[in-house]
TrEMBL record:
One of its GO terms (molecular function) is helicase activity. This is ATP-dependent DNA helicase. Belongs to the helicase family. DinG subfamily. Residues 28-304 form the Helicase ATP-binding domain.
Length: 635
């Protein structure tokens, strides 16, 4: 039945009237007969989505855990895709949530089997989720064993004589669960790669995946990060004669939509690292390059290193992951000199390209990177509206620049179109007010609703807030984990998690898995299979779905307040009451999401423990009323 409407259209009814009837018949009768629960909340949500499709509106659909949000939006999405002839887009917070949506026991497969529908669903993961054959070759040249193992696992057609008609998608991050995040990041796609000039492009896993998902007729599922990258690059790719990363869609569903703003911020940032430019320039310092070009490259390398020496001195170490930069005259002037030298070098490369002494692929890669490098440093040195900061990434300093806050850009490129957009989550509002999210995203017109979870939380959840010293928090967490109960531990940041981990003695908590040690979705699967009794994460405050006795306790190790970093400081500078308008709403949404990891089905039960230091304990009155059960507060 692929491509056909799941109901008949008649002359006396519009598509939307017929869709409304089909949703009611399906949820009230057909699915109930197949063993699905009949949930009034789910039916209401699905009808509201039909109304948003009819009116081409933005809809905030806040529905509590147990509502059945996925099926509520899948039914109208599939029908609308087939009616319009364009696939519906479902955007998830991250790759882990994508995997949960399409897993064997997931809602898409269950719905298709129950309704006898062949649902054409295809995945469009972020580019950094795919293997880069060029970078893999580089790691093999330096003798990395993990890179050799990955190469040995590649399909025969990648380097063998197989016909291109025999190719199939390969090379996703989830295919290499034993690689650590650090190892994967040496062989995955990186923005400096010049894909357009790559001689392996036709056999590249990312290229094959893109060709495959473009043919989707019902659903394309991607991450928020990838959707935002598509949005930001759409017009520039068209100008360059390239297809946009995603095809035209009929509607968009943002699952865990409250996280869209942060994906937009990540997509709109530019990064400059110390080693990247140096490594690229060394690649093109080949025999035969003109002396004037070599001298400019050496001058640029010296200027670039001097810039990072100054940046290291000016980056303020304050315990946050994003480091504020105190811009000195020397730092700004050095950035401007690096821009001047880069422009001069690009002019010289025009002459060198005619001599063919530099491999074309390498030259194009350096030229493209220099253009971004120039744009980034010009923003840094001359644009007062840009938000910038530094980050220490595995011992390497990185300069990050965001041209402006994302509100205006989103308003212009996404919400000005008459595209039905559905935001779905258990937490979109702050005390039933959706303005915090709407204002952050630049949404001027929307419709909304909020419905509670059908679960009786008083019967299935115990929630305790404990006030402890920092040392007491650590000891209390270890005490809780030592009993072997299946526990998810949520930290406000990677730094917080690593600080806790560094205080453990060797071999302590050997039964605990930590985010980042291996591919994330593989750790989730192992935790659900009870290979680990504890899972420590800073990422999975939302979307993680582990039902039944595989997860019976959630520990929140610290309050998820936003950091005092340059990005959030920029938001605070535009607020009349920074704590009430920026910090508090962010924390409340995240707390509600974290607590929501515990109860996922009608048969779940367990406990939540929130561990607070004395300073955090002072904020208890601001959040103790937001939970589905009244907390027990221990001081």
């Amino acid at each position: 039945m692929t491509g056909k409407l799941p109901f008949a259209l008649t002359r006396d009814k519009t598509f939307y009237e017929s869709l409304n009837e089909w949703i009611g018949d399906t949820l009230y009768d057909e699915l109930t007969e197949k063993g699905f629960d009949c949930r009034d909340e789910q039916i209401y949500m699905s009808f509201q989505i039909e109304q948003a499709l009819r009116e081409k509106e933005v809809l905030f659909a806040e529905a509590g855990v147990g509502t059945g949000k996925t099926i509520a939006y899948l039914l109208p999405a599939i029908a609308y895709a087939r009616y319009t002839g364009k696939p519906a887009l479902i955007s998830c917070a991250d790759e882990t949530l994508i995997d949960q949506l399409v897993k064997e026991e997931g809602d898409i497969r269950k719905l298709g089997e129950a309704l006898e529908l062949t649902i054409d669903v295809r995945l469009a993961k972020s580019r950094n989720q795919y293997l880069c054959l060029k970078r893999l070759e580089e790691m093999n040249r330096v003798g990395e064993e993990y890179a050799e193992n990955v190469e040995d696992s590649l399909p025969d057609f990648v380097y063998g004589p197989a016909s291109l008609s025999e190719v199939y998608p390969y090379g996703e991050r989830s295919s290499y669960p034993d690689l650590s995040d650090g190892e994967w990041e040496t062989i995955n796609y990186h923005p400096i790669q010049q894909c357009g000039g790559c001689d392996l492009r036709n056999r590249c896993g990312q290229t094959i995946h893109r060709s495959e998902y473009r043919q989707a007729s019902d659903l394309i599922i991607c991450s928020h990060d990838f959707f935002m990258e598509h949005l930001w690059t759409k017009e520039s790719r068209k100008r360059q004669g390239q297809l946009p990363l995603l095809p035209e869609v009929s509607m968009a569903v943002f699952d865990e939509g409250h996280l869209l703003e942060y994906a937009a911020q990540r997509a709109l940032t530019y990064e400059v690292q110390d080693s990247t430019l140096l490594g690229l320039l060394e690649r093109v310092m080949t025999d035969g390059v003109r002396e004037q070009t070599l001298q400019l490259m050496e001058q640029l390398m010296e200027c670039h290193e001097l810039f990072f020496d100054y940046l290291s001195e000016c980056a303020e170490e304050d315990g946050e992951e994003r480091l504020a930069i105190s811009k000195t005259t020397e730092l700004v002037n050095t950035a401007r000199e690096a821009v001047r030298l880069s422009n001069a070098l690009l002019e010289e490369f025009v002459f060198d390209s005619e001599l063919y002494v530099i491999p074309e692929y390498d030259l194009r890669m350096v030229e493209e990177y220099l253009e971004q490098y120039i744009f980034s440093l010009e923003l840094f040195s001359d644009n007062a509206e840009a938000v910038d900061w530094a980050e220490d990434r595995e011992g390497e300093l990185t300069l990050v620049i965001m041209p402006r806050l994302v509100t205006d850009v989103l308003q212009e490129r996404l919400f000005s179109e008459k595209l039905p957009i559905i935001f779905s989550s258990a937490t979109l509002s702050v005390q039933n007010d959706f303005s915090f999210l709407a204002n952050n995203l630049g949404i001027e017109h929307s419709i909304s609703f909020s419905i509670e979870s059908p679960y009786d939380y008083d019967e299935v959840m115990d929630l305790t807030i404990e006030s402890l010293s920092e040392e007491g928090k650590k000891n209390r967490l270890i005490e809780l984990l030592n009993d072997g109960e299946q526990t998810l531990v949520l930290f406000k940041s990677k730094q917080s998690m690593e600080n806790f981990r560094s205080q453990l003695s060797e071999g302590q908590l050997a039964y605990a898995a930590f985010e980042g040690d291996r591919e994330l979705s593989s750790i989730v699967k192992e935790f659900q299979a009870k290979k680990w009794s504890a899972f420590c994460s800073y990422h999975l405050w939302e979307g993680l779905d582990i039902p039944h006795d595989a997860l019976t306790r959630v520990v929140i190790y610290d309050l998820p307040l936003p950091p005092a970093d340059p990005l959030f400081n920029a938001k605070r500078s535009h607020a009349a009451a920074p704590f009430e308008e920026v910090d508090l709403p962010y924390m409340l949404l995240r707390l509600r999401q974290g607590v929501g990891r515990l109860i996922r089905t009608a048969t779940d039960s367990g406990s939540v423990h929130i561990l607070l230091n004395p300073e955090e304990s002072e904020l208890v009155p601001t959040f103790e009323s937001i939970f589905p059960v009244a907390p027990k507060v221990k001081s």
